[in-house]
Amino acid sequence: MSTTTKRSYSQNFVLFSGLFIVFIAFIYQPLPHDFPQPWKYRLICFGAKLVAKVGYVLEKFNLIKRVQSIRLLYYLFVGCFQIRNPQHQLKIYDVAVNNVSMRIYQPLEYGPEDLMPAIIHFHGGGFMVGCRETYDVVTYTIANQTRALVLSVEYRRVPEHGFPSALNDCMTIAYEIFRQPLKYQIDINRIALAGDSAGGNLALVITQYLLRDGYKPKLTCLMYPALQFLDFTLPSYQQYLPKDILGVINEEDFLYVISQLSGRVLVTRDILRNNHTSIIHKQRLYPYLNPQKYLPKQYQQNLKPLIFDENPLMTKTLEYLITPDISPLLVSDDELKKLPPILLFTTEFDILRDEGFIFAERLKHLNKSLYHYHFKGSFHGAHILLHGPLKFDFAWTMIGKTTDAIKKNL
Ligand SMILES: *[C@@H]1O[C@H](CO)[C@@H](O)[C@H](O)[C@H]1NC(C)=O
Ligand SMILES: *[C@@H]1O[C@H](CO)[C@@H](O)[C@H](O)[C@H]1NC(C)=O
Ligand SMILES: *[C@@H]1O[C@H](CO)[C@@H](O)[C@H](O)[C@H]1NC(C)=O
Ligand SMILES: *[C@@H]1O[C@H](CO)[C@@H](O)[C@H](O)[C@H]1NC(C)=O
């Protein structure tokens, strides 16, 4: 009897160790030697991949849309941590403006006559996932640390809503604030815009709109923003799109989001060779991002010459992608000169790394006020991993740099 139990224990031990090793081998992916907490990152990628796959099956059976499972996972990774504390003296409530809603974080130390500095915040998530709830830990922390009024905009996303729904919703809120600051007790001379990834894209596009209309944001904070949809042959795209960052930033999902943004049109792999834009437009806009001129030398190793070709099936339907409404990098120096001080994060492990550096270099050429932090051992989307088992220390560094820039400029 006891020998059988002993044997089954050791059998189980061998079995579980074997499974564990298989699991480790399965989730293993090579990462740079300076990558902090690599196994945590690998685990996140595994979780995301698993959920995406399960979501795919559930969708096949018409149970739940795949995007819903990814949104839920994103929330569980980031948004479900409760950090609210009455001692922080923040009043938090949701309001809607023309049926676009936003969450307001209001510091309580201001009197009814005081005007407050404000941050209009657009969350990231590839125009597809993320919401004010998922980002609550980020917006809450920024409000708590800067003591500015934070407005977290809930915009429409793909696949339910294509371009320009997100932009329109964010514009609704931004213009509401700039047109009627007093209604919200906001000091119009102390307003910042902020966002990461797709939210960074929205923040910069809207900053440019506001400036054209004579409004003056005081600061724009861009965390690894998406800045252009013209050139997908930049070295960072070539290097990191196959790496499937966070288990969700890969070729398939990239094409999916662009197709959904564009009204579910056909988007083929040709886009990765830039055939989605006409030769004329390429010639006109390429000088605005020319990597040979603006990309740091160490990133130019894998630089390939631009292909001047076009696929007419896509050039018409995707033409909006190279307008400043979604490619805010593709504007003249005169437009960039008007920008307020910019806080810019780039991360090494990121398809958007190079456009960030190109933007930084263009601003430097123009002697613009720029706080550029490059996080070498870090990856796209990292600043939201602030709590729980998936916390990364550099997420707190990123939040710290953001609140410093806000406190200094607002
Ligand atoms: C606003 O309302 C319209 C009409 O009911 C709807 O189509 C649209 O999706 C709504 N926008 C948001 C952000 O909910
Ligand atoms: C909020 O601010 C207080 C005071 O600065 C600080 O002690 C606390 O850690 C902050 N909490 C969060 C979640 O940022
Ligand atoms: C797109 O670009 C690739 C790479 O240069 C080329 O081989 C292909 O023929 C192009 N496709 C179209 C439809 O123009
Ligand atoms: C930027 O500043 C440098 C040094 O002060 C100056 O030489 C250069 O002309 C300036 N460039 C622009 C575009 O103002």
UniProtKB/TrEMBL annotation:
Membrane-crossing ranges are: 12-29
SUPFAM superfamilies (alphabetical): alpha/beta-Hydrolases
Question: Superkingdom of this entry's organism?
Answer: Eukaryota
Record key words, sorted: Hydrolase, Membrane, Transmembrane, Transmembrane helix
Entry-linked InterPro entries: AB_hydrolase_3, AB_hydrolase_fold, GDXG_lipolytic_enzyme, Lipase_GDXG_put_SER_AS
Single GO term (MF): hydrolase activity
One Pfam family this chain carries? Abhydrolase_3
Residue intervals of the Alpha/beta hydrolase fold-3 domain: 119-240, 323-383
| Residues annotated as the enzyme's active site | S197
Family as reported in the entry's similarity comment: Belongs to the 'GDXG' lipolytic enzyme family.
Q: What is this protein called?
A: Alpha/beta hydrolase fold-3 domain-containing protein
Taxonomic source organism: Didymodactylos carnosus
